[in-house]
Specification:
Blueprint (H helix, E strand, L loop, with lengths): L12 H43 L13 E4 L3 E3 L2 E3 L2 E4 L3 H6 L17 H4 L17 E4 L8 E4 L7 H14 L3
Helix pairs in contact: 1-4
């Protein structure tokens, strides 16, 4: 995307100062537009990757109640920064991103997710959790099976947001 801007000035100090100010303003506008396009492009890559990870999860109904959804905010320019957010939405989104239970995530206190320890989402660290050290347990079943309980091993760390971040990092590094 190219853009032409014509700037004219008389050869006088006052006119050249006005030209410089206009040039700075135009350069800033071009930079804002370029960063918005770059952020939007990165957000689209991340959103696509996160959706792919969620969609390809081998959901069998016995591990998680419902799959989380992925959403993206509109790209906005805010006072010197350009932002867009990719979100994992749903009651079990944190378990989906970081994993739950030791069956898939041995040992308790760890996670396959590289940012688990830094964010406080290691296996067994969730407030109110009771089954982190178990390799299987029963949960109340929203699907209303005969027993009213659902057998589970927990969830592996699926990491759609981490995977999305790495897809953007690799694109920026030219490693895609």
């Amino acid at each position: 995307m190219s853009r032409e801007v014509e700037l004219k000035a008389d050869v006088s100090e006052k006119s050249l100062k006005r030209l410089l100010e206009r040039f700075k303003a135009e350069a800033w506008n071009m930079l804002i537009n370029a960063s918005a396009i770059s952020v939007d492009e990165a957000a689209q890559i991340a959103e696509t990757e996160a959706r792919h990870v969620v969609a390809s999860y081998p959901f069998k109904g016995d591990t998680t109640g419902s799959l989380p959804t992925v959403s993206r905010t509109e790209t906005v320019y805010k006072g010197g920064t350009c932002e867009a957010e990719i979100r994992l939405n749903g009651e079990e989104a944190v378990f989906f991103e970081f994993g739950a239970g030791q069956y898939y995530n041995v040992p308790v206190g760890s996670s396959e997710h590289p940012r688990a320890a830094e964010t406080g989402f290691t296996i067994g660290s969730y407030p109110g959790q009771t089954h982190a050290g178990d390799d299987k347990w029963y949960l109340p079943d929203g699907m209303k099976t005969h027993s009213g309980l659902r057998y589970t091993h927990g969830t592996m760390a699926v990491m759609p947001l981490h995977t999305a971040k790495m897809a953007v990092v690799n694109k920026l590094k030219g490693n895609e």
